[in-house]
């Protein structure tokens, strides 16, 4: 359906309060899942990020790249193993992870953003000693737990008008490199940057009261509700660490955290620039 000029103008006017609210504010987007694999969705996401940047939102893009890592490991004859949802990463594997994330995936995203008319610079956690880490668990090998974050490189890039595109590789002072979960890095970075919001793109519609019924979406969750939701089994399995990252960001000063369905075209714009929103929003405080 083709919109009239008046309808287009009305849409822009309705978005104005949200544009004003987010202007010159930092928004961290954690990008992964199907939206990263499907080329059409990837194009839409990059377009959304460029649009937000052009209207004055300081977008920081933190990305994963699990499928690409699995594919490359397979090509060199290494089978991917997981413990509690985290990839077991030996010395050889972490070199491949670094190559794929900080090289192929990161630079492809930078190129896409620039082809959409944006300005982007790719970084990884080693650059500027941004993300310091240590071994999270001996069973996992070189999977990192964040110990310190230096946001100066991110702020420098934002100040120059670029979109920082960050791959989640960490370092330690012994010269080791670590593969770090993208949700963990996005939450910590958002907190350190005192971001207005953190948007986590996933392959689900949000937090569901009944995981098998998409109509049971919980649109708003207070930090104080989370433990009860875990006890009740509403938050379970792989959602527990994802939600814990959301809570970590809130506790570090992020005002709002969203889990949204990255499979929906323009879900970032729907969340940030409309009344309806999408997915589940996490906020501080108590449920009244």
What does this structure look like?
The protein is α/β, with parallel strands linked by helices and 288 residues long. The protein has a single domain (24-283), classed as Carbamate kinase, CATH 3.40.1160. It has 10 helices and 14 strands. It has an 8-stranded mixed beta sheet with strand order 5-8-2-1-11-13-14-12, with helices on both faces. A two-stranded antiparallel sheet has the order 3-4. It is globular, with a radius of gyration of 19 Å. The chain starts with a helix and ends in a 5-residue tail after the last strand.
Please summarize the sheet with the most strands. Answer: 8 strands, mixed
Query: What is the strand content?
Result: 15-25%
Helix content percent band: 40-55%
Q: What is the N-to-C succession of helices and strands?
A: HEHHEHEEHEEEHEEEHEEHHEHE
- At the fold tier of CATH, the topology name is Carbamate kinase
| Rg from Cα | 19 Å
* Order of the strands making up the biggest sheet: 5-8-2-1-11-13-14-12
* CATH architecture level-2 label: 3-Layer(aba) Sandwich
| Number of helical stretches of at least 4 residues | 10
Distance between the termini: 42 Å
Mean pLDDT score? 91
Structural class: alpha/beta
CATH evolutionary superfamily: Acetylglutamate kinase-like
| Uncertain runs | none
Number of domains: 1
Provide the fold topology.
Layout: H1 5-22, E1 26-31, H2 34-37, H3 39-54, E2 58-63, H4 66-75, E3 82-83, E4 86-87, H5 91-115, E5 120-124, E6 131-135, E7 144-149, H6 152-159, E8 163-167, E9 169-171, E10 177-179, H7 182-192, E11 197-202, E12 220-222, H8 226-231, H9 239-251, E13 256-261, H10 267-273, E14 280-283
Parallel strand pairs: 1-2, 1-11, 2-8, 5-8, 11-13, 12-14
Antiparallel strand pairs: 3-4, 6-7, 9-10, 13-14
Helix pairs in contact: 3-5, 4-5, 7-9
